Amino acid sequence: MKHLKELAELKRVEKERVWIEVSRKDLLKVCERLRHEYGVIRVISISGHDTGEAIEVIYHMELGHGILNLKTELSRRTNIVESITQVFPSANLFERELAEMFGITIADHPNLKRLFLPPEIDSPLRKKKRRKKK
Fold first, then answer.
1. What count of other Cβ atoms lies within 10 Å of the Cβ of residue 71?
2. In the chain, how many domains are there?
3. For position 19, which CATH number holds?
4. Which residue of 1, 2, 72, 87 has the lowest C-beta tally within 10 Å?
5. pLDDT by residue (tens digit) across 104-129?
6. Phi, psi (5° rounding) for residue 7?
7. Strand partners for 32
8. How many Å apart are CA 95 and CA 106, to the nearest integer?
9. 62 by DSSP, 3-state: which?
10. Residue 32 lies in a domain
11. Is residue 43 in a domain?
């Protein structure tokens, strides 16, 4: 993963898991390198987590017999991330679910139709903003 140093930060290596953090703006470049230079062929899952301060998006990818976890953080205010479906078509449904459950805008996604929820339910996995006590 030494070729990714200028774009991503290696956080942790476990027995069969690698954790990498990348900025939102470098996500697509890193995915292209993972595909073409490291042989990552598919996204297994994408998970999201609203920390209250930011939204973490973690792309879980198959890397040989192990898993590569690629994490990026999104601002709660802008919450936009580029679609990686052009590099990994298997991300399609996971990105749609992420958009629906967290209200994230997936830029350049080919088909962001809802999967599960009716239109009146919006972003059920987002934390509600807390009001400051006076």
1. 18
2. 1
3. 3.30.460.80
4. 2
5. 999 999 999 999 888 888 888 888 76
6. -115, -25
7. none
8. 7
9. strand
10. yes
11. yes
Q: Is the pTM above the cut of 0.85?
A: yes
Considering only CA atoms, give the Rg of the chain: 15
Tell whether 132 is covered by a domain.
no
For 50-59, what is each residue's pLDDT tens digit? 999 999 999 9
**Beta-sheet pairing, 66-75 with 54-63:** antiparallel
* Domain limits for position 84: 2-107
Per the listing, tokens 């009001």 go with 131
**Cα gap 42→9, rounded to integer Å:** 21
On whether residue 125 sits in a domain, the answer given is: no
CA–CA distance, 51 with 68 (Å, rounded to integer): 22
Instruction: Name the 3-class secondary structure at 106.
Output: strand
Question: Within a 13 Å sphere around the CA of 103, how many CA atoms are in the beta-carbon half?
Answer: 18
